[in-house]
Structures are given as structure tokens and as C-alpha cells.
Amino acid sequence: MSIKNQSFKVNVNTEIGRLRKLLIHSPDSGLGKVVPSKAQDWLFEDIVHLDTIRKDEYDYYIKLLMYFLDPDKIKGKLAEIDSETADRNFFKPDHKDFHNSLAVIEIQNLLADILEDASIRKKLSAAVCAIEGCTYKRQLQMVETEPKELAKIFISGTLEDDVMIFAPIPNLIFTRDVGITINNHILLNKPAKKARSRETLLMRYIFFNHPIFKEYAENILEIPDPAQHFLRPGEEEEQRTTLEGGDVMMVSPDHVLIGCSERTSAYGASEAIKLLFENNVVNKVTVVRIPNKRDFMHIDTVFTQVKRNMWVLLSSISKTQTANPDEPINFLVKQDHKEVTEIHQFTKHKVQEPKIFESIEALLDDISQNDLKSTEPTQFIYSGNGNFPYDSREQWTDSCNLLAIKEGVVLGYDRNDKTVEAFKTNGFNVIKVKDLINGLEDGSINTVTITDTLVLMPSAELSRARGGFHCMSLPLLRDDL
Ligand SMILES: NC(=O)NCCC[C@H](N)C(=O)O
Asked: What class is the 19-478 domain?
């Protein structure tokens, strides 16, 4: 079964409203092809063990999403889904027993659906072959390939007989980065890294051609290169117009945050602001410039939202945490502006007078209190409980990159011990995903009543790919808060 003639609602207006639909991509065989010499070019920090990342890690994510977003597919069937005879078929996008959920939506299957149209197969084969430098003969073979198989080839770079014809796109598991839902619009990314450009191409075809997005064709926003782009000197990242989804956060119905980071340039942020204002998508955009380094990559690697009055963040991006002013070194070495956090808030009718926030906490507090009308004081949970060196160690393994499945129920990696302690100190329950799933199956835990919970997800392999569950989700529909 494929998702062909459906159309549905797309709307996300906060980071924490109950999640109803999202795009995901399960680890495909391309992840098992990352080699050490290419790992860094392909933006992985290490090679991963495919079987473990699937069976012992990502499958739990799918099961948990299913209980919350599409329970009929899983409740009462867990033993059967997990049985040896089922052979994980529920989790394999190309298998007839695949879950095929319309709430937990697999990108590979959307791609297979659009490839049934011969003209799309032709255009996309030509485009992929152009960016990957394939031969013309290979291009003609692709056009003749069966759609499900072709979707796998486009993603994994591998033919049916396990022969590689181009590089995989292992980062497609981080669906957040390819596009972002902002109210009822979808903003497509413009990736900074070459390793992610095929993802963008495939997603552009899906958003513009798949029937589920048919009613939103006018609401899909693409960032153009301004005319000056072609005249700017050099090819440095800063001079380019780039934007990746991990740098965009829909924090309240009228307010979007955009990070300026290793991946999103100031030009990218500026073009995105113009698009959002011109199309009346929101009236307020805040640009958060974070230090430009690999560890930080996107703003969602240094902070995410947990509840309307609670955020998890890395203390070193806070201006209030600057070095001791009595230190002689402060007079001897001046901080590069690229190394500090800067916050400018633009409103539609006053772009020329941005409001400045002195610290990330001041901005997040303003969102909690003024945008989201929290009646409780704003709470901050710091990575590694704010203590060196655990703060940076745990940020590196995505302690700040949490996905809220509903307000106050967040998914994070099980390896960030000090951050987990900080959640407990702030009154949160902490539960391993296996225990939560068993509780949801036997009815002792309920998705409606569960509150203030950090769900610990197994992470030994996933964390080597350099992203957490916020990165591994592209929400399409959330309830209003
Ligand atoms: N939003 C995110 O921070 N996504 C994580 C992306 C990780 C991926 N390996 C990358 O470097 O692009």
C-alpha cells in the first residue's frame, strides 16, 4: 500500500504542541556503507553498525511514535511485531508488512510514490545523475527501474546487487534539516554541505509532487540566491546563501527563530526572513547567531524546548556565562564576533530597528512568558548540569537536542547522565523507552495522562551520526498549545 490519493492538514505553530504527524527516514543501507576515510565528508563522526542502529535503537523510536501518533498500528500487536518470524518487516519501508503509517511517514515511500509517474522518474533521474556525475546510459537505466527500487537507489546510492554507483546520503535520517513546517507553510532548506544536496533535491520533488502536499503547493517556500550572490567574491560559507532546518524553530504561532551557524549563513537567514514576511507567514523572526563550529552546527544542537516554561540548553552559549572579567587574558585576546551569541529580533513592520536580546535566556524567557503566556517562572536545564567538562561532552552527544512528542514529554539519548540528573532535580520522571513501551502496551501507562517525562533512548550507534531526536523529526502537524 502506498500513500497516493490522500491529502491532509499541515500545520505546526509551536515546538511542543502534541505531535500528530511527522516525516522520518529509517536508517537505510547507505549508513552501512560509510567508510572511515569518508565519514567526515559525509558528516558522520564515525562508522555505525547498521543492524544495531536499526534493531536496538531506531526501531524503538518508531514504536514509541506509533503509540502516540498511530496507536491502532501497534497496540495489542507488539509481541507479533517483535517476534522473530516477523523479521522486523514492520520497520522495512519496502516490505509488504511495513506499517505504512499516515502519521509516522517514511520519506522513502513518498519518493517511491512520486516515481510511479514516468515524467518525474525521467526528470529526477536526470537531476540525480547530473549532481552525481553518472553516465547517460546509467540515467536511461534508472528511468526504466521499478519505482520502489529506484527510491532505494536514489537514497542509498546502491543497486540491488549491492554495487555502489554513488555516495549514500546517510544524513537523510535527520529529516528536520531538509525542510521546516511554519504554520501551514513549508520552508525548504538550502544546504551548506555538499553531502546533503541530494537530500534537498529529492525532498523538493516530494513536496511539490506528492498528492499529500497537493493543497500546499502555494505554501512551499524556497530560498533563492539573490542576484548579488553571483558577484560576491570567494566561495566561503559566509558568502553563500544557506539555511538548514535544524536552524529554524517555530516557537509560537507568530514567531520563528532562525540560527546563524556553521550551516545557516547570515544571507540565508536574511532571505528566509524576507520570504516569511512577504508571504505573511509570521510577523516576528529572531536571528540567534551562535559560535560557528562543528560541535554546534545548528541552533537545535544547543537548545530545544521542553515545556512552555522549560528549555534545555548549553550554558556556554549564554552571554551571562562569559569569562571572569578580572582575567588579564580578556585584555590580551579579543573575542571574534563569530565566537559569541548575538540575538536580533525583527518584526515585519520594523525590520530596520531590530530588538537586541542580551542573552539566550532572556530571549527564551520572553518567548515563554510573552508569546506562550506561561503562568509559571521559566526554567532552564543546562547540558551536563552546567558543569565542565560534562556540559560540552553531553552537548556533543545531543543532550540539548530533544524532541517533544507532547508538552513536557521529551525524547533524548540515554548516555547524557548529568543532564538526566538535572531533569530529575527539576521534577521530571525519567523512563527507559523499553519500559515505556511495555507500559503503553499493557495499559499501565497512557499517552494522554503522561506528563513531565524524559524518555531515554538507546544511543550508542545513533549518536555517532551527530544528531538527536529533534534532528530526526520533521513535524508536519502538531496540536495548538
Ligand atoms: N538538526 C541537526 O542538528 N541535525 C543533525 C545533523 C547531523 C548530520 N550528521 C550533519 O552533520 O549534517
From this structure: alpha beta
